[in-house]
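Here is one chain, start to finish.
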Amino acid sequence: MLSDQQLLRYSRQLMLPKIDIDGQQALIDSHILILGLGGLGSPAAMYLASAGVGKLTLIDDDKVDLTNLQRQIIHQSSSVDMHKVDSARRSLAQLNADCQLITINRRLDEQELFNQLEGVDVVLDCSDNFATRFMLNRLCYQLRIPLVSGAAIRWEGQLMCFDMSDNTPCYRCVYDENSFTDQTCANNGVVSPLVGVIGSMQALEAIKFVTGAGEKILGRMLLFDGLSMQWQSIQVAKRKDCPVCSSTEVPSSVGA
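Its structure:
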């Protein structure tokens, strides 16, 4: 049951037929995990906390650097040299004190991440390396947790969603583990509002997963060109030989 204060705070969302009382209550009861508190995770975490998500688990092993402040809007100048999760906790507590925050400031191995994912409703992949993305995809498929993946570099952004069902592709259907090298903002640069666009859309997709509103970006990759201000939608097929979602075998090293 929403309190009078919650009814007022979330009144603009409650007006939406696709959310209403039931959808807002679902958000308040939800648990969302965000891996990465950089350019993508910053706006995603802020919008999810503001929208009324009841519990956020924030994972990042990095500290705030002066170069981060150009785009990672959850951090302030006073956050430099702080752990990113601690800086994010401080900002989010100011946005919505009712949001329960769980912070982890170290890199987790596969079993540790598996343990953190249990009971989570949606995962946001805001990381910046393929090894983490592949691991998160494997675990989300094993636990059948929806995954919202975002990426941004230079002037280009990318967004994909995976519901981890038997009929839709997973992240591993799109990318081969041996075919890509990591590209980072430190090496290639990125325009600051771009990560805000993609991170905000990750939050939007997470809200849609929790509330059941709208159509999710399943079986599609959205590509955004910030220079031309054009979106492109590319169909993504489920791979019959995908080593993750074409097999029901559970790795013995995880969840044992």
